[in-house]
Amino acid sequence: MPRKAGAVATAALLLPLVAAAPSGQQAPQSRLQSAFGAAAAEYQVPQSVLLGVAYLQSRWDGHGGAPSVAGGYGPMHLTDAATALKAEAPHHGHGDEDARGDSSRPARVPEAKLPDASELPDRLKTLTRAAELTGISPEQLRTDPAANLRGGAALLAEAQKKAGKPLSDDPSDWYGAIAAYSGADDKATAASYANEVMAVIRDGAARTTDSGDRVTLAATEAATPDAAQLEGLGLRRAAEGATDCPPTVSCEWIPAPYEEFGEGDYGNHDKANRPVDQSIDYIVVHDTEGRWDTVLKLVQDPTYVSWQYSLRATDGHIAQHLKLKDVGWHAGNWYINSKSIGLEHEGFLTQPDTWYTEAMYRSSARLVKYLAKRYDIPLNRQHILGHDTVPGPTTANIRQMHTDPGPYWDWQHYFTLLGKPFHRSAPPSGGLVTILPEYEEHTPEFTGCTKAGEKCPAHGSSAVRLYTEPRKDAPLIKDIGLRPDGSPSTIGVNDLGSRVSTGQQYAVAERRGDWTAIWYLGQKAWFENPKKQPTAVDAAGTVITPKAGRAEVPVYGRAYPEAAAYEGTGIPPQPVSPLPYKLLAGQEYAVGGKTPGEYYFAPVFDTSGHKVVRGKDEYYEIQFGHRVAFVRAADVEVKSSRG
């Protein structure tokens, strides 16, 4: 049900998203743990508060002094956006992908009209204030974790004093200061952020950071939110309007327009009546390739494109732009658009060191879990899609499709927050594998982040590379959709032709020593999977294979109905157009689900003629390559992967 206006999450509504540390457990005194203690003592901030805030920002990682997607540095995410952020190229405004993806209409490839640079909000320049309070240089605050902790502690202490509160040892007394630390300018977002921190403090946490330091936050069960402390912070009330979000996140209504312009053109979405007329089966994860303020201005432009939600990096705040019954133009595939919800996360695909904040990961996970429950969407990689796993609807569209959120999005952590962590679920005889590299230790080489052919910085990744033979000097797998000339794939950061991603499942074709082969794009594809450092785990499930007597079956990028379904509707039949790949006899592919052939006809502004055409043909969604695909149910046999 829609979120009620003015709702503020309470502790009772917060679902634990952190692996709890036992109450009273003695924390190992690593160098970083000691630095937390020293900074807390220097500024008289409870160590649990400092640890809780830092966990929500960075999970205590220093990221080698690299900034987050919002220009925040170090464990405390001290922001210096003017130094950190590079030129923007919002991803719906570059390349030639038709975000709408409806071949019955002209392509919608908008130009991103970037607003003039404006004064950065205070939430994006907290490092400057930390330098003033501590006397530590901005450079040291950016690169030295211990100094960064001191800067964060100084900011918290200043916020506590401004609120007229004592520098007490009780973390509950610091609720208002924690809310102020978020930098949010509205009460709901500040409260949501503070509630998340209190949940971390209450549940406790422990992990080894990217610097190798073991850090522990002992559980403090008495830590409780105190919403009364928000009064006096000068926070506005966000316009919740038609938002549809869980009560445990902050959500603001910033609507995308539905307007006519030009000669019969309109934008920037389509009106619909989902899920009454069509089920919502997918959630698509994007990154923005631009700053929050820029993205909000673009989505309010009728000549641009649209999606349902945007998520802010600094505090996890959510803006909703479309009612969920309506169809956004975001995925580059009209079939997927008409049956999905799009989430844009503030971030940059080709800047691996500009990390995604924990606050945004957690807020996104809460939203996705809520939406999945409401619309009965399975929490797996064939329904929680990346933009990079949405198929090109036709052969002509394959090379135009976008590749965000890219290889640096941490799918394992994301699904852990969703309550569905990936793990081994069958013995080797199960017949499937779930891709599962250890994110922080798995650092495959990529090129092209800043310049074509130039190596990207080494970074943890969800991506695993595929070869034509079980050896690293073998050619990479070919993708004839991306390269019709048959040339091999590359290690370019945007080249998806020869890689798989965490959580995706594939049928095992062969095993040989430390190598595993899977069926992929109609080929046998090998990846290194050593026992000591596996990149996949065994699984079992349902697969499809061509029916007996069929040498091959076609593969589709959209599940459209047969031509006969359009008879008597006055709607032009849409071509059931196969992709250039071949699914050959003897090959098997993991099944995501069964769906009827559907097409949503909505080519004009006037909604009176909009209609869903539904046929008799049914399709199976399969994990065919890096992207999902569809096969006609009549063409394939469905069976257990166990044989």
UniProtKB/TrEMBL annotation:
Keywords: Cell wall biogenesis/degradation, Hydrolase, Signal
Transmembrane segments: none
Catalysed reactions listed for this entry: Hydrolyzes the link between N-acetylmuramoyl residues and L-amino acid residues in certain cell-wall glycopeptides
Xref: SMART domains: Ami_2 (SM00644)
GO biological process, one term: peptidoglycan catabolic process
Chain ranges of the N-acetylmuramoyl-L-alanine amidase domain: 269-406
Keyword Kinase on entry: no
Keyword Cell division belongs to the record: no
GO function term, MF aspect, one: N-acetylmuramoyl-L-alanine amidase activity
Pfam hit, one: Amidase_2
Chain spans, region Disordered: 88-123
Signal sequence segment: 1-20
Name of the protein this chain belongs to: N-acetylmuramoyl-L-alanine amidase
